[in-house]
Amino acid sequence: MSDSLPPVYARLTIDTDALADNWRRCGQQRPKAECAAVVKADGYGLGIDNVVPALTRAGCRTFFVAQIDEGIRVRKLAPHAAIYVLSGLAPGHGDRFAANALRPALGSLEELREWSAFVAATGWQGGAALHVDTGMSRLGLRVDEAQTLAAEGELFRPSLLMSHLACADTPEHPLNARQFEAFAGVRSLYPDVPASLCNSYGTFLPADIGYDLLRPGVALYGSNPQPGRPNPMRPVITLAAQVLQVREVLPGEYVGYGATWTSRRPARIAMVAIGYADGYLRSGSSSDDFDTAVAVVAGKYCLIAGRISMDMTAIDVTDLPSGTVKRGDWVELIGPHLPVDEVARRAGTIGYEILTSLGTRYDRHLAV
Ligand SMILES: *Cc1c(COP(=O)(O)O)cnc(C)c1O
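Above are the sequence and the pyridoxal-5'-phosphate SMILES. Below is the predicted complex in structure-token form.
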């Protein structure tokens, strides 16, 4: 779609001021720590090109991505930033890390040996994180491996010591305290290496676990980092879709695939141009037995009618005065009135999946 033409079908608007505010808000939570930004999965679906310049302008100097190619994209936008690659050293790819000044988060002894050999052979001094597993059993050296490594006094000195919390979104979960303790123990082995433990939820926990560097991701994009309490984050994205047509449906007539939704009254249905191919998840579909997703149409919440299809979704707008909705109007599916977490709950998933499923058929506009 050319810039000179108005958007059709669907549009995603990104409020970079809100994004910057959310990043600052995370930092305020632990003023002694530096606040980084996690921008993996293309900036949680918003687009690395959209989020990294805004975060850099706000003062962010450290980024985390999952993969090398994401790191390369961030490097082009943030020439002076520290960039960590959370999936670690892909086998035989030391030179790509060095060529783009990316830092692997080394998550096993095998990776650590390969990186040490690469560093010894090339003299590369770009840094790497040592990722220690404190109870999640995903990536990271075991605590005893980190202890042995430290005791052997190997030459390897990480630029960051990190671990990841499995249950920080559930403050009362007993694993949290175990992970805090394990990390404090490992930290004491590397007292002069900057340390990092907190994702979005960890950043907002009361425990004294701020360490030197915060790693919020999802909260930056508007998701609530303290579930069950008011969301301190501003909404960042608005996903809107255009009405293709408004049609009358008689009592007893069906809407959509599988005929799962039956009209119980003379209804008006707005068909909007978005579907699961755009990341508007099919699990938000409704039927005669249960309601799930909603949309904001002319300022009112309206239920989705029937199954969400690949390219379109039906909305029951019967309760709006006739003529309020017409072809070409825009409908909000995610936004200030429909927070990401609420949309996720209604589709039986989490905000992360809503964000990272955002489609590629629509433009991403920056709010002005
Ligand atoms: C994704 C990720 C984060 C960010 O997590 P959020 O829950 O999105 O804040 C931080 N650290 C690691 C290791 C991650 O994989």
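The two ends are 19 Å apart (CA to CA).
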